[in-house]
Amino acid sequence: MNNGFKLKWIRTLILVIGFISAWILYRAYKYSQLYKNYKIVTGRITHVSPAVMRGTFRSVEYEFIVNDKKYSGAGKTTYCKNYQLGELRRLLVDQKFSIAYDSTDPSNNAIIFSVKAATQFKQKPTDMLLHFDSIINCIKIQ
User: Fold this and answer.
1) Which of 27, 31, 92, 102 is the most buried (most CB within 10 A)?
2) The model scores a pTM over 0.85
3) Alpha carbon distance 127, 142 (integer Å)
4) Antiparallel, parallel or unpaired: β 38-48 and 105-112
5) Are 97 and 117 in contact (CB under 8 A)?
6) Cβ neighbours, 10 Å, residue 106
7) Is there a contact between 66 and 109 (Cβ–Cβ < 8 Å)?
8) Could you give the strand order of the β-sheet that contains 96-102, starting from the edge strand earlier in sequence?
9) Contact, 134 vs 141, CB < 8 A?
10) By C-alpha distance, which of 123, 141, 133, 34 is closest to 78?
11) pLDDT for the residue 61
12) How many Å apart are CA 75 and CA 45, to the nearest integer?
């Protein structure tokens, strides 16, 4: 390798590491703002996306209304071989769930569809939430 190529490669690497670091810091800031300023509202799941590949996550899209304005977001569920995509969609789409949103920026939000999320936002898990938590965590219910 010549020195010019090495220098360009090092600059590119530094730039990529800088962008990744900035993104991680931004996400951490947004999460901290959400936990600091959250309010709870009811929203509904609108779509469940297929996993890109086995072992990855499925995206669960939802919407909710704050001050007569509609917002949306997406949560993740683990890929679960116990539930086919169509079955997950039948179980989850149009179901109502609590949504935590940042009162200073409602576009910063999270769906509460697991016991872990309920605990993070000081919500008491309902029977329905326990049921859906088992689905999201790949526990087949008969």
Assistant:
1) 92
2) no
3) 16
4) unpaired
5) no
6) 19
7) no
8) 69-78, 57-66, 38-48, 96-102, 105-112
9) yes
10) 133
11) 93
12) 10
